[in-house]
Amino acid sequence: MARPLKRFVCQSCGAVTSKWSGRCESCGEWNTITEEAGAAPGPAGAMMARGHGGKKGRLLEFTGLTGSTPQPPRYKSGINEFDRVCGGGLVVGSALLIGGDPGIGKSTLLLQMAAALAKQNTACAYISGEEAVDQVRLRAERLGLADAPVQLVAATSVRDIVASLERPDAPRVAVIDSIQTMWLDTVDSTPGTVTQVRASAQALVELAKRRGIAVLLVGHVTKDGAIAGPRVLEHMVDTVLYFEGERGHQFRILRTVKNRFGPTDEIGVFEMSDRGLSDVANPSALFLAERRGQVSGACVFAGIEGTRPVLVEIQALVSPSSLATPRRAVVGWDSNRLAMVMAVLEARCGVSIGANDVYLNVAGGLRIGEPAADLAVAAAVVSSLADEPVPPDMVVFGEVGLGGEVRPVGQRDARLREAAKLGFRTALVPRVRAGTGSASRSAEGILVDEIEHLSDLVARFQSADRPLKRSSRGGGRESGRGGDPDRERD
Questions:
Q1: Which residues contact 401 (CB under 8 A, 6 or more apart)?
Q2: What secondary structure does DSSP assign to 20-60, as a single string?
Q3: pLDDT for 436-487, tens place per residue?
Q4: Which of 421, 337, 343 is nearest to 374 (CA)?
Q5: Which of 130, 159, 225, 323, by CA, is between 20 and 30 Å from 46?
Q6: Of 411, 389, 437, which is closest to residue 302 (Cα–Cα)?
Q7: Strand partners, 173
Q8: Where are the alpha helices (H) located in 50-132, listed in sequence order?
Q9: What is the distance between the alpha carbons of residues 305 and 265, in angstroms, rounded to a whole number?
Q10: pLDDT tens-place string over residues 52-86
Q11: Are 135 and 126 in contact (CB under 8 A)?
Q12: pTM, rounded to two decimals
């Protein structure tokens, strides 16, 4: 009998080595390599490796790209924000992975979703590997879902779960909470390891495809915010969702990272309360609910999250620094992007910011990733530096280049329509090539102020009694050095 081979697997990236080492050469993480036992290759496996298998594979039938493919049927839970993020509902026979920080509300959201589907005569099962049945019942009573016909069970054996879901009367939707607690008896490693997570997920995904069951997997996240386990886990499933939110805010953001049946980068906004999570039909109004007008350093940005426009307030505070190296604190935006915008303000517009502490915050706990927020961030920083408020009825969006130019961004009309719906009257936007002037009345009823260069924004905050501090190395858009470009032309 062949002896089982021993291998060493990195629990961070899944790399396999023949010997142990303190640092993984693939991902660079320390103390993540553990020893696991692997099955020794048998004679049949050796023959297949040499290409001498005794049985030929069946011939595949190829087809062309043309043809009609019906839309896959979906289970709609009635939770509008959840259905939106999934692309219109859960697809039959799909596998969905949802990750998030501990205590953010993943189990609460999936229990509410399963209860909503069960009330619509869709058989749902909630399989908990972390909590007992009584604990899940207590949460259901707190959420007012005790009367929902959801089938509960506490189990961690994938073999038992697959056998239970193979029955003819098995549920059509199954929630697995969580995938890191599942284990297969055919894999010689402890639950939560890379090998167990990969094998358990593979068995559950195959079950979903074979039986047409929508399987939802809850995944733990690492300290960096990525789903724990092998990266291949996200490639195996059809949809990957991240549940985000700040502990100090009652808002929760469900964000799509991957979706084979719908758009990516879609978000759903929820509000957490003692009765669970509730839909937020108008996120823009909610993010701007606590906004105070006539405050310097505050600017409303009209962004796009997935397929919907969202208005959020960007706050900046520029104050003199007593430190040798001034602080740069950013919440909800890319700190490297802020450094770039500040460098353009200094080098291209002559605004001196370097000796000040700069604090930037996206109100409401939302994280912005699109470059269209550059102009709004620049407006908030210059407004705080000049102590001059941005007009409270103005929205700002646009991308800033390294030369100081303000570039157009996509879905301009959708951003303006959302701003007009919330009562905004003016918009500071990049000039389009087919523009008709510096200011024009748009079809949405908003007075559009178009600019070409970041210095045009700075000029709007200049006043005789409160001039902005100019940098000795700053320059205009024409020369790239100090001086007024109009004066140099003369």
A1: 344, 407
A2: --SB-TTT--BS-EEEEEEPPP-HHHHHHHTT--SSPPPPP
A3: 444 445 556 789 999 999 999 999 887 545 556 554 444 444 444 344 444 3
A4: 337
A5: 159
A6: 411
A7: 124, 214
A8: 80-85, 106-118
A9: 6
A10: 455 678 898 898 888 877 877 899 999 999 999 99
A11: no
A12: 0.76
- Compute how many other C-beta atoms are within 10 angstroms of the C-beta atom of residue 106: 25
Q: Is 140 exposed, middle or buried (0-12, 13-18, 19+ CB in 10 A)?
A: buried
The Cα 20–Cα 30 span in angstroms is 12
Tokens (6 digits) for 278 = 């509730």
Question: How far is residue 440 CA from its own chain's centroid?
Answer: 35
The answer to whether 189 and 37 have CB atoms below 8 angstroms apart is yes
Q: Are 276 and 114 in contact (CB under 8 A)?
A: no
Cβ pair 381, 468 in contact under 8 A: no
Cis peptide before 178 (omega within 30 of 0): yes
What DSSP character marks residue 70?
P
The Cβ of residue 41 has, within 10 Å, a number of other Cβ atoms equal to 12
> Dihedral through CA 199, CA 200, CA 202, CA 203, nearest 10?
120
CA-wise closest residue to 374 among 396, 395, 399: 399
Number of H helices, E strands in the chain: 13, 24
Amino acid symbol at 75 = Y
Specify burial of residue 315 (Cβ count, 10 A radius: 0-12, 13-18, 19+): buried
- Tokens 């509300």 -> residue: 105
**How many Å separate Cα 297 from the centre of its chain?**
26
The DSSP 8-state label assigned to residue 179 in this structure reads G
pLDDT of residue 275: 87
For residue 235, give the H/E element and its range. helix 232-236
Query: 191 is written with which tokens?
Result: 């639950």
Sheet hosting strand 447-451, strand order edge to edge? 328-331, 356-362, 308-320, 298-305, 394-396, 426-430, 447-451, 439-441
Angle at 332 between CA 331 and CA 333, to 5 degrees: 100
CB 184 within 8 A of CB 143: no
CA atoms within 13 A on the CB side of 13: 12
